[in-house]
Amino acid sequence: MKMIMPSILSADFTRLGDELKAVEAAGADWIHVDVMDGHFVPNLTMGPMTVEAVRRVTALPIDAHLMIDNPDEFIEKFAAAGATHISVHAESVVHLNRSLQLVRSCGAHPGIALGPAAPLSLLDWSLDYADYVLLLAVNPGFGGQEFQPAILNKVRVLRAELARRGLSTIVESDGGINEKTIADFAAAGVDAFVVGSGLFGTTDYSATLTRMRREVERGMKSAAER
Fold it and tell me: Active site includes 174?
């Protein structure tokens, strides 16, 4: 199953509750929350209180992407706030498998996030502990960037490794995904698509998601015909 998750980083925060209800009604699968600390990435955004507020508005799964140093100090707080999925950056932790085990012990699904310049080799000894892998197609820290095309081959390599190991790990990607690019991500093997301004920057969320799903199908068909 292919999933599309709106990133609230691009939502109108003056009416966040209405925005969440609108994307849920339009057919969104998960809600994505980008957490930045101003240290690991050069920006400062949301914390557990935001996740708690989102949880009060929607029953959809909440994917908390921790772009922060020392994520182990905050994992329990995000899980308690209502995050169902929590990803930590392989580049930001010392003992990645321990961090993933902590996420699972809190009742959430653990994920590994990788920036575009981070090698897949960082996953070698921890991949079995993760339910999903988030490959960033832009440098973390800011929304609205164009994706780096090299990420598509990185997705293909990861997909091949998962198949070799017999793992059903979800492949997620974030950065520059919109109606024009989502087919390429789908063809490369992405399962879950994080969409920010490509959705919240449009006027009809339902129509946009319908077109995106059509493009996902086109990308999958293209890949199957190769």
Answer: yes
CA distance 19 to 8: 9
**How many domains are contained in the chain?**
1
User: At 160, phi and psi to the nearest 5?
Assistant: -65, -40
- Intervals of the chain under pLDDT 50: none
Active-site position among 37, 63, 131, 174: 174
Model pLDDT for residues 110-141, shown as the tens digit of each residue: 999 999 999 999 999 999 999 999 999 988 77
What is the rounded CA–CA span in Å between residue 90 and residue 18? 34
In tens, the pLDDT along 88-97 reads 999 999 999 9
What contacts 14, CB < 8 A, 6 or more positions away?
none
- Residue-number span of the structural domain to which 87 is assigned: 3-225
**DSSP, res 169:** P
Active site residue 18: no
Residue tagged active-site, from 34, 63, 131, 191: 34
Alpha helices in the chain (DSSP H): 16-26, 48-57, 75-81, 96-105, 150-165, 182-188, 197-200, 205-225
- Across the beta sheet with 132-136, what order do the strands follow? 3-6, 192-195, 170-174, 132-136, 109-114, 85-89, 62-67, 31-36
Q: What is the CATH number of the domain that holds 186?
A: 3.20.20.70
Please tell me the pTM assigned to this model.
Answer: 0.95
